[in-house]
């Protein structure tokens, strides 16, 4: 068995295959990196934030849209006037947008021209196992391809896709392999929310550069990733008319948390989270995003005079010694002037599905070595093993999962493939309102915290994963397999399983 403190070397850049199991093993660190770029030398608010490209299907046949994407390296101007090598879908950084409709199938052929294996996961997607992007369901480098089928048998949601090849995902996502997948339905379409040019997806992430403007990757070095990017640009500006805008915010960082607010402290509305719209809009002054999480917000700029400049700031994740002028700023809004606005945010957005009755309870404990002696991370005391089924679930079952962060200093979060879930409790307190009251697929656990989740496992049988979506932690082994099957029995139980009476 290969131990993770051996295979997960900092600075790993290339993968290989070990035996028939296909275990991905990053190579040992190479020559010393060039000197780090000083983030204070990067000009802020000089580049315009781009709006991600909407990818056009190669053809539409009936109720199916077909797309072709190539995984390839490309050069991007992240820092003003300098080029950085990144890993991309179709050469786009950030990745492109697929616009999908519930009930209409999307088929994507991914061709891997990178030098490393990949596996593309539709984060938040309700998809068959064959198209889930399993950590070991790999697309070979140098021209291998795979077809992913997304039936879209789920309500509207702000989804995204990214690499999930185990041990490699941390570096490949960090180097740019992410994209947007905006799924809509008649519920969302029947609302009069800001749309068109006034509906803008924004991918947030952090980065570290050397003095030649190239990305520096080291496992777990997020405190050195002090340049914040919005849609692939370092500290950009975005011109807005004096009217309402919808911003779909995606935390695509490996490790960084964000607490986003406007620099003048003014309120805006949060209308959605991971799994689409909330039941009702929330008046907030900030939104919190862990890695992998999404927030859907509406900001009304009509209250500002032309020429106003506002910073979308980050008050979260700042540790002693962190430079607030870097990691405390995300982007700048520049108000240009009035514009017609017929959009509105209604007092009721949607009716959330009923919770149903749970018949199974399970317990999951997230932990990792905080002494620095090893690079191991665990769920219920075990690191990930692709050949081990950790949890057997009966098809159609509704279950309650109690997830606890056993660490004293280290935060985690928890992402479940296949399903959207509801957060029932946080540290014993019921969650009945607020940003966690909607449909979720990723949930934060601060040190010592416990959350209780409920999900129904239906639609597809097969083997999927749950894991910490602080991607470095998943690469270190904080991941497990669950299998959904119509033949699952109580005798083949997962962690902490016990039957509870129907409520």
Automatic annotation (TrEMBL):
All residue ranges annotated as the Plastocyanin-like domain in the record: 72-181, 368-486
Signal sequence region: 1-34
InterPro entries: Cu-oxidase-like_N, Cu-oxidase_C, Cu-oxidase_fam, Cu_oxidase_CS, Cu_oxidase_Cu_BS, Cupredoxin, TAT_signal
Pfam families assigned to the protein according to its UniProt record, in alphabetical order: Cu-oxidase_2, Cu-oxidase_3
Alphabetic keyword roster: Metal-binding, Oxidoreductase, Plasmid, Signal
UniProt protein name: Multicopper oxidase CueO
EC numbers, comma separated: 1.16.3.4
Keyword Transferase attributed: no
Lineage of source species: Bacteria, Bacillati, Actinomycetota, Actinomycetes, Kitasatosporales
Taxonomy, superkingdom: Bacteria
Family membership noted in the UniProt record: Belongs to the multicopper oxidase family.
Keyword Signal: yes
Source organism of this protein record: Streptomyces camelliae
Database matches in PROSITE patterns: MULTICOPPER_OXIDASE1, MULTICOPPER_OXIDASE2, TAT
Catalytic reactions of this protein: 4 Cu(+) + O2 + 4 H(+) = 4 Cu(2+) + 2 H2O
Entries under PANTHER family matching the protein: BILIRUBIN OXIDASE (PTHR48267:SF1), CUPREDOXIN SUPERFAMILY PROTEIN (PTHR48267)
SUPFAM superfamilies documented for this protein: Cupredoxins
Record note on quaternary structure: Monomer.
């Amino acid at each position: 068995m290969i131990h993770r403190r051996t295979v997960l070397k900092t600075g790993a850049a290339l993968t290989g295959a070990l035996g028939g199991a296909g275990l991905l093993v990053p190579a040992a660190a190479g020559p010393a990196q060039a000197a780090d770029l000083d983030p204070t030398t990067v000009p802020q608010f000089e580049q315009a934030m781009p709006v991600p490209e909407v990818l056009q299907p190669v053809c539409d046949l009936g109720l199916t849209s077909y797309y072709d994407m190539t995984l390839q390296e490309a050069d991007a101007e992240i820092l003003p006037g300098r080029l950085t090598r990144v890993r991309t879908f179709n050469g786009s950084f950030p990745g492109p947008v697929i616009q999908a409709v519930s009930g209409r199938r999307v088929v994507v052929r991914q061709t891997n021209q990178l030098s490393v294996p990949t596996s593309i996961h539709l984060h938040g997607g309700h998809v068959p196992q064959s198209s889930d992007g399993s950590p070991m369901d790999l697309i070979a480098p140098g021209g291998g391809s795979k077809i992913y089928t997304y039936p879209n048998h789920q309500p509207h949601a702000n989804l995204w896709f990214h690499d999930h090849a185990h041990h490699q995902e941390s570096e490949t996502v960090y180097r740019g392999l992410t994209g947007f997948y905006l799924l809509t339905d008649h519920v969302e379409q029947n609302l009069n929310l800001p749309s068109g040019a006034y509906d803008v997806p924004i991918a947030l992430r952090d980065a570290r550069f050397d003095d030649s403007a190239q990305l520096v990757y080291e496992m777990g070095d997020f405190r050195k990733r002090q340049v914040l990017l919005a849609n692939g640009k370092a500290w950009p500006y975005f011109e807005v008319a004096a009217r309402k805008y919808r911003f779909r915010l995606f935390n695509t960082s490996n490790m960084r948390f964000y607490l986003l607010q406007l620099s003048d402290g003014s309120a805006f509305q949060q209308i959605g989270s991971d799994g689409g719209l909330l039941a009702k809009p929330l008046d907030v002054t900030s939104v919190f995003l862990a890695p992998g999480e999404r927030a859907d917000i509406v900001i009304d700029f009509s209250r500002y005079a032309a020429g106003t400049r506002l910073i979308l700031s980050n008050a979260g994740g700042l540790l002693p010694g962190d430079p607030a002028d870097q990691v405390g700023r995300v982007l700048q809004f520049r108000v240009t002037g009035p514009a017609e606005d017929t959009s509105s945010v209604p007092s009721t957005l949607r009716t959330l599905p009923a919770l149903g009755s749970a018949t199974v309870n399970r317990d999951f404990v997230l932990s990792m070595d905080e002494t620095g002696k090893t690079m191991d991370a665990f769920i219920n005391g075990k690191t990930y093993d692709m050949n081990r089924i950790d949890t057997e679930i009966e098809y159609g079952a509704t279950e309650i999962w109690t997830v606890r962060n056993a660490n004293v200093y280290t935060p985690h979060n928890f992402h479940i493939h296949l399903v959207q879930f509801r957060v029932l409790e946080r540290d014993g307190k019921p969650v009945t309102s607020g940003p966690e009251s909607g449909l979720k697929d990723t949930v934060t656990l601060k040190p010592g915290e416990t959350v209780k989740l409920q999900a129904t496992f239906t639609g597809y049988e097969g083997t999927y994963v749950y894991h910490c979506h602080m991607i470095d932690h998943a690469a270190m082994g904080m991941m497990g397999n669950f299998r959904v099957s119509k033949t699952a029995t109580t005798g083949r139980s997962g962690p902490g399983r016990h039957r509870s009476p129907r409520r």
